[in-house]
Design brief:
The structure holds three protein chains of three kinds. Chain A is mainly α. Helices cover 73% and strands 2% of the residues of chain A. Chain B folds into two domains: 177 residues, P-loop containing nucleotide triphosphate hydrolases (Rossmann fold, 3-Layer(aba) Sandwich); 78 residues, no CATH class. Chain B has a six-stranded mixed β-sheet with strand order 6-7-8-3-9-10, sandwiched between helices. Chain B is globular, with a radius of gyration of 19 Å. Chain C has a single domain, classed as ABC transporter involved in vitamin B12 uptake, BtuC. The radius of gyration of chain C is 19 Å and the shape is globular. The chains are: A mainly alpha, B alpha/beta, C mainly alpha. Chains A and C meet through α5, α11 and α13 of A and α4, α9 and α11 of C.
């Protein structure tokens, strides 16, 4: 009955080493770009993993906060000349605040209602990004976002952002492990009514489920916001198309694939997701010339269905399943 | 365990710890609780009995604030708790066990009790995420307190097992340990003897008396008379949501109305 | 065109699209009441109805026959979806089911994109009249077809649930699945029938609105969301409530898009949804149970 997320420092060390070493060993700009996307989505998915696996809340709204982080960073740095790091923090604070307010309305819901309500958030914000021309540049977005700099060094190269993003992932991963392995983590598990929690019992012990659901929602919004800010400083461009419905599906697929509630699952899921996606993108035009994105969408849908039917606890549960099979003989 | 000296009132304070006045609960046209009034004195073991459907669990759910009352007042230590949330009521010092066990199956035995320490520990999301020094101390304290509760209930051996691996009677003990971890002033026990053997009921009786002797007031709802007659200081009898008898166990046993209400049921 | 005429046009447009939302909502209700699943692929049923109709029509089949084939195929597909995807995991927790129906809707959209791409397709209007003029407002005859068909579907559904034996079996399954199965009603088959029925109605709605609004692989999600909202407003269990919900959504959307800004077309239903949820858990016309899905 162990908490699956007890931080294993050995694993963390291994993880950090792998992340650092890969781009050095495999010198490929293409790989670095994929690595950046894996990192960004790992960040977003970490938040969703906490939300789904601990508070038991399905959310399709991560892309909304990803977008808010991106746009607030862009607007503050470009239109108000704010220091990019400060802008990033302000964006995260703003996202967290928004999540708190919206959470109070939306998190009263359960199951399907909650899913659609969060999807509603995603679409509402997408529309704001696309329609509020004066602030956001509308559908064309805003180019020319300044780069980040540390000390005297301006970060202009892709591999700068690769390392920066993964540094964020590592810090947030450790933070998340700490939260999960604490009084707060237990409180979250106690209210997760699908996986053995009991809201009634939790309330009788002084835990207010609503309060914790909102807090996790806010935390996951902050994670997504940081990802958004990092994204636009890397790309120097922000457009609404990055924050639409599909973007809100990706973290869902990643968390489902990796394993809800597993923090490592979020990272592994992101890695597998993007590698498979790229594989698709590379292979499909060879097998069927002239096609591009359509097969991906089908693949995502099938992936969700198949994972839920055959591997409901995600990839990280594979070692456990193998163990169970062995003991059953 | 809670200490009487802990409370703000003087040790000889006579205010009832819980007072229910004109309590009323209707579900549409069905009246579940009908103008019920009673007091629970500090340090007492008060049992509420009655035939099935008499409204006992509904009453508990309302004291606990899982359900709103349709009317009447409920005072805990002189303060109205009628409008408070369940979590708030727990923070004030009312703990509870459930008729249908509500253990956290996604946690180990000791972690279940550690959740019980939630109210008595500190540390929010930011503090725990950053692993500030005080949180490490808190975690240590919480663990130790939980383990000591388990030791008291003779569950120390199974601390790291799954609660589902315990036999039913021990699961109930675990739920009590968890409730006690909150250091309550008043403990609500919802059919604690349900599903237990005669021997287990005897052990339970000793346990409950021990809890009371430690300074916690006990209010229990029960169907098994062996437990009630053995430990209750006072008994209230409900039938169809109304009080039909109140007094010591001996008085109740000779109350004619009570006997007729139980006709056909084991007394 | 005077203000009055403009408003009239918005109203008709709103009622037309609102009818479609209402049908989507009814589809949600039918499936939910029997299987307790909110089927997000409901919108894809409408998409398939429209797309398949255009495919058959383009191959030279008569219009009504094309639509009939499209509806039948979609109905069969709906039943398949239940049997193959939903039924095997029917005991899983709610959010697994949510994810799976989302996955299904994405997969269906993906298949459509692969086969038919992103093009918009259209059917000819059902009658040759084109449009009628009311004062100076132009009313598309197809709108009347849409409204009429929807009304017909609603009436048939109502009669079905109230007066026929299978219909009553349906309602029994929805009220008490265990009791119903004890009485010999096979809940598995009920589930497939529910899905099939919802699919067929959705397909018909999709086909009938295609001459007005074109169809494409991507329309499913929007319809599903709005149908879902209509269903929630109606409390998920009352036909009248869902119809009112759908129509309200459609009308508000049409007015909002027309009077304020077309870009906000999609946002309005969602804002309404959030507002309704905030104030009334049970929808405007249904019971409080709906809030606890």
């Amino acid at each position: 009955m162990e908490n699956i997320n007890r931080p294993r420092y050995a694993s963390l060390a291994l993880f950090v080493i792998i992340v650092i070493v890969i781009p050095i060993v495999i010198k490929s700009p293409y790989l670095i770009t994929i690595g950046i996307f894996i990192g960004l989505y790992a960040l977003i998915s970490l938040g969703l993993s906490l939300l789904m696996g601990y508070a038991g809340q399905v959310s399709m709204g991560q892309s909304a906060f990803y977008g808010i982080g991106a746009y607030v960073s862009a607007i503050l740095t470009m239109k108000c000349g704010v220091n990019p790091w400060l802008a990033m923090i302000l964006a995260a604070l703003f996202s967290t605040l928004m999540a708190g307010l919206l959470g109070m309305v939306v998190l009263r819901l359960e199951g399907h209602l909650l899913a659609v309500a969060t999807l509603a958030l995603c679409i509402v914000f997408y529309t704001i990004f696309a329609q509020w021309k004066s602030m956001t540049g509308g559908v064309d977005g805003m180019p020319g976002i300044p780069k980040l700099s540390i000390g005297g060094l301006t970060l202009t190269r892709d591999f700068h952002y690769y390392y920066l993003i993964w540094a964020f992932v590592t810090v947030i991963l450790v933070f998340s492990f700490n939260v999960v392995d604490s009084r707060v983590g237990r409180a979250l598990r106690s209210i997760h009514h699908f996986l053995g929690g009991s809201e009634m019992a939790a309330k009788s012990l002084g835990i207010s489920p609503m309060k914790y659901k909102i807090q996790v929602f806010m935390l996951s919004a902050a994670y997504a916001s940081f990802a958004g800010s990092l994204y636009v400083h890397w790309l120097s461009l922000v457009t609404p198309s990055s924050f639409g419905f599909l973007t809100s599906i990706y973290p869902l697929i990643i968390v489902t694939l990796g394993g809800q509630g597993s923090l490592w699952g979020a990272i592994i899921g992101a890695a597998v997701f993007f590698i498979v996606a790229e594989g698709f993108r590379a292979l499909v035009p060879i097998l069927k010339p002239g096609t591009s994105g359509e097969y991906e969408i089908l693949a995502w849908g099938l992936m969700i269905i198949l994972v839920m039917q055959f591997l409901p606890r995600g990839l990280v549960s594979i070692p456990d399943i193998l163990k169970e099979k062995k003991t059953k003989g | 365990m809670s200490r009487i000296a802990d409370s703000k009132e003087s040790p000889i304070d006579v205010t009832p710890i819980l007072e229910v006045k004109d309590f009323h609960k209707a579900f549409g046209g069905l009246i579940a609780i009908n103008r019920l009034s009673f007091k629970v004195n500090r340090g007492d073991i008060l049992a509420i009995i009655g035939p099935n459907g008499a409204g006992k669990t509904t009453l508990f759910n309302m004291i606990n604030r899982f359900q709103p009352a349709s009317g009447g007042e409920i005072l805990f230590e002189g303060q109205s708790i009628k409008e408070l949330s369940p979590a708030r009521v727990a923070a004030l010092g009312i703990a509870r066990t459930f008729q249908i066990l509500q253990l956290f199956s996604n946690m180990s035995v000791v972690e279940n009790v550690m959740v019980g320490r939630h109210l008595r520990s500190k540390g929010g999301m930011l503090a725990t995420g950053l692993r500030l020094p005080f949180t490490r101390r808190e975690e240590r304290n919480v663990f130790d307190a939980a383990m000591s509760k388990l030791t008291m209930m003779d569950l120390k051996e199974e601390a790291f097992s799954s609660p589902l691996s315990l036999p039913y009677g021990r699961q109930k003990t675990l739920e009590m340990a968890r409730a006690l971890a909150t250091e309550p002033k008043l403990l609500l026990l919802d059919e604690p003897a349900g599903g237990l053997s005669t021997l287990e009921i005897e052990q339970l009786a000793q346990l409950i008396k021990g809890i009371r002797d430690g300074g916690i007031t006990i209010l229990l709802v029960e169907h098994r008379m062996e437990l009630v007659m053995g430990i209750a200081d006072r008994v209230i009898v409900l039938n169809y949501g109304s009080k039909i008898g109140e007094g010591t166990p001996a008085e109740i046993q000779s109350n004619e109305e009570v006997i007729s209400a139980y006709l056909g049921e084991e007394f | 065109m005077s203000m009055y005429d403009q408003l009239l046009q918005f109203l008709i447009a709103g009622i037309s699209i609102g009818s479609i939302y209402a049908v989507m909502g009814l589809g949600f209700m039918i499936v939910y009441s029997v299987t307790r699943v909110m089927n997000f692929a409901q919108g894809e049923f409408a998409m398939l109805g429209g797309m398949l109709s255009t495919v058959f029509y383009a191959k030279g089949l008569p219009l009504s026959f094309s639509i009939l084939c499209a509806v039948l195929i979609t109905t069969a597909f709906g039943m398949f979806l239940h049997r193959a995807v939903i039924y095997p995991i029917r005991t899983a927790p709610v959010f697994t089911l949510v994810l799976v129906t989302f996955g299904a809707s994405i997969a269906i959209r993906g298949i459509s994109l692969i086969i038919w791409g992103t093009d918009f397709r259209i059917l000819p209007p059902f009658s040759k009249l084109g449009a009628i003029h009311l004062a100076q407002a132009v009313i598309n005859i197809q709108a009347l077809w849409v409204i009429g068909t929807t009304l017909l579907m609603a009436i048939v559904l109502f009669l079905f649930f109230e007066y026929t034996v299978p219909g009553k079996a349906f309602r029994a399954s929805s009220i008490n699945a265990l009791g119903a199965s004890l009485m010999g009603i096979k809940t598995e088959r009920m589930g497939s029938i529910a899905f099939g029925l919802a699919a067929g109605l959705g397909a018909l709605a999709g086909a009938v609105v295609t001459p007005m609004m074109t169809t494409s692989s991507e329309i499913g999600l929007g319809l599903a969301i709005k149908g879902f909202i209509a269903a929630i407003i109606g409390g998920l269990n009352r036909i009248e409530g869902i119809i009112v919900g759908g129509l309200t959504l459609g009308i508000l959307e049409a007015f909002g898009a027309g009077l304020i800004h077309s870009g906000f077309k999609d946002v309005i239903p969602l804002l309404i949804f959030l507002v309704v949820l905030n104030f009334r858990r049970g929808g405007l016309l249904g019971d409080a149970e709906a809030g606890k899905i």
